[in-house]
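seq:
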Amino acid sequence: MKKLIFAVALLVLSAVCVNAQDLSNLSKAVRAAYDFLKEEGYKPEVDEDNDVVFKAQGVWFYLDNYPQDDTYLKVVLPEIHEVDVNNARQKEAALFACNEITRGKKLIQAYMWKDGTIEFSTATYIPSSGEVDEFVAASIEYMMAAVTPWVETFTGALE
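struct:
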């Protein structure tokens, strides 16, 4: 019984140490955003790339971690759509929709990767951690509100 209790305690302690070690690799801005997400009831986790992943409004987001820059914060809504890059009409419509969202929506950058994956992101300079909360909350709100207009613009351009 003592061995079982010791093994469980060791497992819990090692999990806590690994988590703390992962957080030490986060930039100050990303760490502040991580803390905000945790306080708000989201369940942020540090992935293998030292980015912070979390689910909001039923959708996965991540904080792109730049440990060499403590003032840069980028929130990403990945893979909102996938386009067949070999289909010229789809590719053109997707790029048109990305341009319309980037040009017409606050904070949002919409772009297509070489493989046809469409992503949204927001990025900003955060001089102090006190400004992180509002930026992260606004980023989630604005990106979620831009998904439907992107899809409508994309499908409209295909017609």
